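Changelog-adjacent note: as of this version, every example in the card shows the full chain rather than a window. The one below runs 91 residues end to end.
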Amino acid sequence: MKVKSYGSNQSLVEKNGCEVLYSYETPVAMIVRDGKARAYKTDEFHSVTTSKHLNQWLRKYGFDPKCESEVTPIPQEVLTTWYDSEFVTTS
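Full-length structure tokens:
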């Protein structure tokens, strides 16, 4: 698992094909790379600043955060436990 600072109050955590954006201490978005990149974001609203972090990060990778065909909303609980989820490959 790799953890790196991404910006003010933001960090990225990478593990086995998943890259997860944390805003403050909360995971709010994820990109899964297992052939084709797929993007997910929390279905909860946290704050204006967190929304800004999330939207900027997804746009950086070419995803439109407002388009559900590009970025799938998922329950916050799934993002909170992403490292033990079906998104993380074991390879």
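Structural remarks: The two ends are 13 Å apart (CA to CA).
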